[in-house]
Amino acid sequence: MGFEHEDYCKYIDESIFHKKLESGLDVYVLPKKHFAKKYAFFGTHYGGMNNVFEVNNLGRVEMPEGIAHFLEHQIFEDELESTFEKFEKIGANVNAYTSNGSTVYHIETVEEFDQALKILMNFVLDAQITDKSVEKEKEVIIQEIKMYEDEPEWQMGTNLMKNLYHKHPVKDDIAGTVASVRSTTKEQLLQCYEYFYNPSNMAMFIFGDVEPTDMFELVEANQTEAFIKRKTTPKLIMPNEPFGIVRPKSIITKAIAKDSMLVGFKANSVIDQKDRELKLAALRVASDMMFGKSSTAFSRAYEKGWITESYDMDVQLGEGYAYAVFGNQTDHVDLLHEEILRTIEWHLNNGFEHEDFLRMKRKLLGRFVASFNSLQSIASNYTFKKMRGFDLFEQVEAFNKLSYNDIQNSVKTFYDLSNSSMSAIIKDKK
Description:
Strand content: 15-25%
Structural class: alpha+beta
Mean pLDDT: 91
Low-confidence stretches: none
Distance between the termini: 69 Å
CATH class of the largest domain: Alpha Beta
Number of helices: 16
Radius of gyration: 23 Å
């Protein structure tokens, strides 16, 4: 059994081999000779946003918020033996995460990799969901939700997303709410498992000192019959998100040592799939040029004592949403808010220096390439991006192809000062 194609990136001298198995499951293998550790990631394109969908024979289906995260917890359940102990016995580690658009189960080990991979596939593809396990896990997840709700930084970020988005589920907590968790049933979990944990909706990623052909054969041989028979993948239904924001500002008071704030910018329009790699690279370079440590904005804010070591910066593009966030710990929330808006407005009107663009492009491309020195970094980043519709190799290519005009145009089409909101936490004076 060979592979369908090899993706090679000359800038980092790495290849990843891909094969779509007969069942429809995509398998990606990146061989890294002489590395001791091996990693596997088994993911489904099913996450916190997949609560309203369309199924051929059922029409529109609505599920409780947080059900994908709930299902992740349930899949680890085993009444006979702890899933974690199964891996510990062979010296392997296992964990999982649920994001907006995916759920990923992952393992790492030095020894017994083939056996660890078999255990991974077995517990994900043979979920044991019972009334007892569901009721028990509800309390665990509710405690998790309450723990996060007590975190000021989490509240600030959540409030910002609710300030920016009216209807899009990107504003909702991936774990759901206490009410939505309590309302979730075993039947709903089994239904979502049947729909979203199917070969054409999942992918396996393997990294380390392995032979691609051996890995394709191993994965193919350990698919269950029930898994192979699953053919229906629901179509995600996204709400009609209005153009504008919900509110321009939200402030909460907490017993904290230092105030913090975030400013979010909701994009003017949704980014086309075909432009996303280049657009994301352009926006990240532009962010660093506007607010990075070598920027005028950083120097000015740092000298005035408005920020600490650096700006927190993030740009996210996903299905039906696109936004950028900037912020910092500060005891001058309003002044820093005005400074961020003023900086973006200046660049909207005046653009960027060409030399600054070339320097920043080289810097970020170099940082990107350097991250490939770590197998763990390659494994987690490649999987995370692929499950979100991006490709790590293509992003390296996008950084390299980036032009000065791409930077100028991306900022002008992405940012609108009237489509921004600020979320802050300030010290409780009492």
